[in-house]
Amino acid sequence: MKQVVIASGKGGTGKTSVTAAFAELAGRPVVLVDADVDAANLGLLLPGADEPAREFEAGRVARIDAARCTLCKRCIEACRFDALRLAERRLAVREIACEGCGVCAAVCPEAAVSFEPQRAGEWTVRETRFGPLVHAELAPGAGNSGKLVARLREAARERAARLGARWLLIDGPPGIGCPVHASVTGADLLVAVTEPTPSALHDLGRLLELAVRFRLPAAVVLNKADLDPAGTELVTAAAAARGVERLGRIPFDPAVPRHLAAGRGLLAVPGVREAVTDCWNAVVRRLEAPAARPEERNDAAV
Q1: Same-domain check for residues 29 and 156
Q2: How confident is the model over 11-31, as pLDDT tens digits?
Q3: In whole angstroms, what is the distance from residue 110 CA to residue 222 CA?
Q4: What is the three-class DSSP state of 155?
Q5: Cα(41)–Cα(264) distance, rounded to whole angstroms?
Q6: What pLDDT is stored for residue 53 in this prediction?
Q7: Could you tell me if 114 and 133 lie in one domain?
Q8: Co-location of 66 and 181 in the same domain
Q9: CB distance 25 to 11 below 8 Å
Q10: Which of 95, 119, 143 is the last residue of a domain?
């Protein structure tokens, strides 16, 4: 099984639509992960029935025992996150502000503070026409999205092993933060989807630097490549300067958003379909190239 992460340094480059197209080209069974748990939308292009949702817990939140609390306010004074307040002669916890640091429990003379796991979201598995899609929804204001992404990938690997899937495709979140780290760790290839704009070029550079730090093989797909020929040349040169392969170029076509809005993907658009197929074939060649025969290897015995 090969794990491919389709990511971008910024939002809006088309990585989700590319992921859905790759899923169709990969052939069944393929297992997919929507790792953008803050704003998951791969499911919009891959409808299907969801299994019952599983709760995800991360971190902890303070709880106050009103029977023991004497309202001394030491915890309020010690809390650096303004997570405790008096309300109607009772001490209340603002859950969205509580970091679970434990200082309130440390200063409480009555041992009135305890902690319980915090619900941070829920995740599920959807059966799509191409294979299972593991996706999630982070609770509003919740943190630890990197841990949720790691849980999704773990579930996806288990499902892929049971199905004997050749491909695990991960639609990564934008940027280079913690959720991206959880998305790319241990992957076989990072496919960076970018476009010929100054902001995309800047953020592509940050994403490729991240790939170097993680010692992760990377390649570039240039979307909307014909919108700005000069920008396309800059992106191509930036990738070449880092020794990163360009898998292909996808042309701009105003029919694409209309097809996406109707629930159809990139492969429904002539011209775009052929370009995306070339990109996928380049991924396959890179990851499934046959190993060299012993006599062809530099370290072969003489």
Answers
A1: yes
A2: 888 999 999 999 999 988 899
A3: 61
A4: helix
A5: 14
A6: 93
A7: no
A8: no
A9: no
A10: 119
- CATH assignment of the domain containing 195: 3.40.50.300
Residue that the structure tokens 């030491």 belong to: 74
Number of domains in the chain: 2
Identify the CA nearest to 37 among candidates 162, 174, 166: 174
Closest by Cα among 219, 261, 274 to 21: 274
Q: Note the pLDDT of residue 39.
A: 87
SS3 content of the chain, % helix, strand, coil (to 5): 35, 25, 35
**CATH number for position 71:** 3.30.70.20
The pLDDT of residue 27: 87
Residue at 76 is within a domain: yes
The whole domain housing 245 covers 2-47+128-288
Instruction: Burial-class residue 138 by CB neighbours within 10 Å (0-12, 13-18, 19+).
Output: buried
Q: Answer yes or no: do 189 and 257 share one domain.
A: yes
pLDDT digits (tens, 9 = 90+) for 18-67: 999 999 999 888 999 999 998 899 999 999 999 999 999 888 999 999 99
Per the CB < 8 A criterion, the answer to whether 1 and 167 are in contact is: yes
Give pLDDT < 50 ranges for the chain. 291-302
